[in-house]
Amino acid sequence: MILPIKIPIGNYLITSDEMNIVLNERKIRGKKSENAGEEYYSPIGYFSTMESCLESLFEHKIRAVDAATISELLSEIKNISKFIRSEFKKARGKDKK
């Protein structure tokens, strides 16, 4: 039996099923929706390993960066790495309690 994964990372949620690890992004339903303002998660990728899922999360966040120089990009990459590590530390701390 495979235990399902449910790991929140900022505006993302890593989940799993029997076949995949899924990277989901948090979204909010628009004003025209029947459930306006409701939060939901939309899949942005399906992966066979946690490593590939985290690489995709990293790439997804880098693509959203508005850097004009290599220095700015490198700084943002460091911030993204710190953010991901920090979120995993928080998640591990919650599991131990």
List the helices and strands and how they pair.
Blueprint: E1 6-9, E2 12-16, E3 21-28, E4 39-47, H1 50-63, H2 70-96
Antiparallel strand pairs: 1-2, 2-3, 3-4
Quick summary:
The chain is built from two helices and four strands; from the N terminus they run ββββαα. It is an alpha+beta fold and 97 residues long.
Largest sheet, order of strands side by side?
1-2-3-4
In DSSP terms (H or I, runs of 4 or more residues), the helix count works out at 2
Q: For the report, how would you describe the main beta sheet?
A: 4 strands, antiparallel
Please give the radius of gyration in angstroms: 15 Å
How helical, in percent, are the residues? 40-55%
Strand content: 25-35%
Work out the oligomeric state of the chains in this entry.
single chain
Provide the low-confidence segments as ranges: none
Judged by helices, strands and strand pairing, the structural class is alpha+beta
Shape assignment: globular
Tell me the distance between the termini.
24 Å
Average pLDDT confidence is: 88
Give me the strand/helix succession.
Answer: EEEEHH
**Total DSSP E strands:** 4
Q: What key phrases describe this protein's structure?
A:
97 residues, 2 helices, globular
Give a description of the structure:
With 97 residues, this protein is an alpha+beta fold. It has 2 helices and 4 strands. It has helices spanning 50-63, 70-96; strands spanning 6-9, 12-16, 21-28, 39-47. A 4-stranded antiparallel beta sheet has the order 1-2-3-4. A hairpin with a 4-residue loop joins strand 2 (12-16) and strand 3. It starts with 5 loop residues before the first strand and ends with a helix. The model has no long low-confidence stretch (mean pLDDT 88).
